[in-house]
Amino acid sequence: MDSKFKINDEVIVDSRSSTGHCRTPAYIRGKKGIIERICGRFPNPEEIALCKKDPKIVTLYRCRFKQMDVWDNYSGKDSDTIELEIYEHWLNDA
Amino acid sequence: MDKNYLKMGPHDVGGEESLPIDTTDNNMTHWEKYANALRIVVSSKRIITLDELRYHTEALGDQYFEIGYFERNCLSLHNICIQKGIYDMELFQKIKSKKISEFDVPIVDLPDVATINHIHDGKPHLHNVSDFQEDESGDGPPDYYFDTLAIAQIFIDQGLITNDDIALKIEQFDNVFPNRGKAVVAKAWHDNLFKEELIKDAKKAISDIGIELETFADIICMPQTDTVHHIVVCTLCSCYPRTLLGMPPSWYKSRSYRSRVVHEPREVLAEFGTIVPESKEIKVHDSNADMRYLILPPRPSNTEDLSEQELSKLVERDYLVGVRLPK
Fold first, then answer.
1. Does domain B177-327 have CATH number 3.90.330.10?
2. CB A66 within 8 A of CB A94
3. Which residue in B60, B141, B244, B300 is a FRET match for B205, CA 20 to 30 A apart?
4. ipTM of the complex
5. B239 is catalytic
6. Using the beta-carbon criterion (under 8 Å), do A25 and B14 form an inter-chain contact?
7. Active-site residue identified among B43, B239, B256, B259
């Protein structure tokens, strides 16, 4: 299956809330960044945590965010960045 | 900082204000090593997956930060076993009592030295207090160690794991894993071609020099440069390239480090004595899913004549997480 996003695409992390185990930290939800690289396809940890048989295989991306876009009143430099791994079902087109 | 976001649970600490970081690394006790080894054996054999373990640790609620790291990992493992019916409380308590009883040694009153006066070589022989010493002092193991021993015994009795599996993991974490990352970095300092391969595809490059990492995760290598300073954290738990670097230091697992690195990396780095100039970009890597990170520090100056072996002695763990730089 093709990946939905390609490198340098602009994305927004979904801001929905979640229950159970999830690897999308709250602080990055709703934030806008770009795709840094495509890491490959992995079983969805949200389903593994619940012992679901045959968990869905999802594409994982590394996403890059400007720190200024993540935190209000970020005290560092404009060029500072933060990178996280986000599964495809948590990413939307910017 | 945006204070309106909803945390998933007690573990989701990225962005919190928190205390200064205790940058000392406390050595692990035997029971911590044992608890860690059991968790790794159980998850690497897929008896219980890492994500299940994480989920149940996160579900501890207020207890999460009230108890220690290894204790909460032990408790979540126990809760899963009960929930999945791997054992019931009756069996668990029976085995745990047996384990506790194995630690029961009779308490013997030390002799009163004043009353001892016996003959050696035909002469009266007096003793000093220092002639009688307790073999052990201090507190015994914490209660969760007996929980861990009981859980391990049940798994062993069920044929799921062996004592050797646990012993091997303890040995690897003590003596094998921590040296791998140092060897890899020394080789990268010494061999430019290997350095390029490492940055391109770290897991493959490491495998190509004969180090097979016992991990499902991929490794990404980020080289420190004159313009970018890299630093790694896991805000959700304590993801760390264990089979390459060994156990994460205690500060890496601390609430302070996990909370603060993402939103005030310069301040955190300063607490480690690392002052990053304003002209440099700081890039934080939140190791939050399936990748693990190795930061490649710059080769120290005046080391041109050193062999790879000699260089490996200059590699410090803190460089490989990005909290410190070689001089």
1. yes
2. no
3. B300
4. 0.98
5. yes
6. yes
7. B239
